Amino acid sequence: MAATADITLGFLPLFDSAVLVAASEKGFITDEGLSVQLVRETSWANIRDRIAVGHFQAAHMLAPMPIASNLGLTPLSLDLVAPFALGLGGNAVTVSRDLWERMVAEDAGPGTDPSANGAALRRVVARRRDAGAPPLRFAVVHPFSGHNYELRYWLAGCGIDPESHVEIVVVPPPLMVDALSAGAIDGFCVGEPWNSVAVARHAGHIATAKASIWRLSPEKVLGVSARFAAENRPALDALLRALYRSSMWCGESANHEELAALMSSPAYLDLPRKMLMPILTGRLMLGDGATGDIPEFFVPHAKGATFPWQSHALWFYSQMVRWGHTPHSAALAERARDTYRPDIYRQALKPIAAPMPGANMKVEGALTVAAPVGASERGLVLGPDGFFDGRIFDPDRLDAYLASQR
């Protein structure tokens, strides 16, 4: 099929849909001869189901979602591919004001240090257990989400068992703040702008951030029906080029005011522009007048932010295995890894000479400083990409990593 194929693409009202929004609003999609309709949805379950029944050919997706679908872990499972990442970071963990006060009493710090604030939370959890109080309830946006796995990773790394010491439930992103305000949950892990909305409404305090738990870590991808990808490759290639150019535009600081204005419109986030600018600068209001400077809080383009690293896919798979969401086998690991399609990315962007890494996987968490890499003359800089606990993930030593987390 020609590159003029019509594509219906689902998205959720989150700031990390920015590359999709800018691609549409700034003309990058039409420049490639494509017709793409963006359809706003309210939950990740709707995104999952509507791509499965053919309403969408592609969608803004949680990074683990296509992996879960390909492993047969979701209703209406469908073969999906993830040929493009939609940026790095962008999430935070927000707790109720009452819980934050209890954490401060247990020596929580003024910023988003995951170790200090996690230790304070551990002490709060222990006191509640000793008193026979019900477990704290945290919300995530979907079982197969970066939010769920980074929240669990943080909790476990701080000595809190996500399975028995707290309760984790699913709440759609737009309902998180209302659930926190109503006392239905004690905290949540969600993408922006909902953490900032909770702070602005005096409903919560940001305790830590995705970028603090695992710096420059994956969050959303472009999920595409494998059948559509196979039958409409010219159109898919053109879409990836449009999204890549959009990511470049989104990453330029000179465009941030305009990007925030685009995202603030009623069609997308319907929030004041001034509430969105901190997402791009990393200088977030944390609550009670405190401000946090979070390096590389949300990265739409730099540091290989759009490359679908297969090591990212395998890390998510490792967490699915760790928490009993899937059994482990070499075949399942291969299926998870091959959900991410850097081969499609490389072919689509070859005509525009986009900088490329020399490999499809990397050791995650090993870079302590920014480092130049890549097979392109234009070069590529990656890192730092550390986990807060100092661990590293070597995708070639998956079994050893799994054993170390038991």
From TrEMBL:
Localization in the cell: Endomembrane system
Designated name of the protein: ABC transporter substrate-binding protein
Cell membrane in keyword set: yes
UniProt key word Transport: yes
GO annotation, cellular component aspect: endomembrane system
Alphabetical UniProt keywords: Cell inner membrane, Cell membrane, Membrane, Plasmid, Transport
Organism: Sinorhizobium mexicanum
Top-level lineage group: Bacteria
Listed CDD domains: PBP2_NrtA_CpmA_like
PANTHER family reported in the protein's UniProt record: ALIPHATIC SULFONATES-BINDING PROTEIN-RELATED (PTHR30024), BLL4572 PROTEIN (PTHR30024:SF43)
